[in-house]
Predict the 3D structure of the following.
Amino acid sequence: MISSQLPQQIPGFDEVITEQDSDFKSAGLKNPSVIRIFRIAIVDRNILLGSIGKIDPSLKDEGYKESYSQEVFSRLTTDTDYLLSLDFMFVDDQTLSKIIDRGTETEIAGQKFIVPSLNHLIALKLHAIKHNPEPRKEKDLWDIIELARANEIEVGGEDFRQTALKYGTPDLYREIKERV
């Protein structure tokens, strides 16, 4: 997760990157941001150990349990103090290739990551809201609004409208336009 909402930071757990950090520009950031590198994973279906709904035994051994699952998304939660929930979005090979090809490679805490392009990040958040609105809407909608503001996205423009309608809903698109 990458967010410009610095108050979301969990001290000692999240990474905060500001303009003074050497990797700020290479990460493609425009505002100081909180990076939570363990929050969401976009995975190729071929690497799964079984059908969706099955958790690898090693994750169960660590205390994870599946709290929500559907065809394209799964959330694992834990009651432990040292692990946070994991969100998995399952995509096909073509979508994964696009996300990787259009993303920006960066290094955070000595590990290489692909940061999704702005368009893909917004599409993922719209998709999450559309398919799981109750727990996701306010947080992800706020993230989309902040991303649009920080990157000066013309939310009334045709490109954004097409993305919003393809991955979200007409009501979400209207709400984003009203709030930006």
About this structure: Helices lie at 57-61, 93-102, 118-131, 133-150, 158-167, 170-179. The chain has a mean pLDDT of 80. DSSP finds six helices and nine strands in the chain.
